[in-house]
Amino acid sequence: MKPGVILLMGLPGAGKGTQAFRLAERFPNFVHFDTGGEIFRRVTDPAFADDPIIQRENKRYFNKVLNTPSWVTEIVSERIRYYSGQGKGLVFSGSPRTPPEAQAVLPLLEDCYGRDRLLVLEVVVSPETATERSRTRLTCNNKLCRYGATLEQRGKPCPECGNPLPQEQQDEEKWKYEGMADGTRIREFEQLTQPAMELLKKRLTHARIDGEKSEDEVFGQILTAVEKNLS
């Protein structure tokens, strides 16, 4: 398939990351662009430990506060240009997270790929489903992978990179669940990310995906939408 951009949007815990990995496997010329993973790698990289900006963003990240939009946009823009130059398509899982990010990134995506090669897929789940999924989530410790798994898979080989998955849920995932359970992350989504998604939907082709279905059924819906709009 010709390179393009697939933007998977929805609540934390909707399964966007899992589906993004599957899309990147299905279409080898597409790269899963995990903005959350890029942020995590940057704020925990020892090479940047003395950078005051990284120190600020590290504090925001681990205090369950969204990172500074302008800083996130810089990282995202840098990587978009790189992958576009390599002839790769992109699969985003949850980004852009705020209206300023959307307004900054969208023109770049249109310039690099063309508006007709951009597709927004809204993965819809209830807050209850998203919270329950977050309760059992763990993440591959390989910073270059960051595959999202469940506690049922603990200790098993990561489906993406093959490294052993953690034996227990990491603190990072625990506080993400706490943020879902107390409503913090859901409110942030409704106040910031949902408006960004609506902005994208007004400009781009979009489709609704029922994220309450099984993983395979959700992937089937996504493939149908991709083949209809990007083939």
TrEMBL record:
Protein name according to UniProt: Adenylate kinase
Subcellular location: Cytoplasm
Organism: candidate division WWE3 bacterium RBG_19FT_COMBO_53_11
Chemical reaction(s) catalysed: AMP + ATP = 2 ADP
Family: Belongs to the adenylate kinase family.
Keywords, comma-separated and alphabetical: ATP-binding, Kinase, Nucleotide biosynthesis, Nucleotide-binding, Transferase
Superkingdom assignment: Bacteria
GO cellular component labels: cytoplasm
Entry-linked CDD domains: ADK
GO molecular function, one term: AMP kinase activity
EC number: 2.7.4.3
UniProt entry tagged with the keyword Nucleotide-binding: yes
Assembly: Monomer.
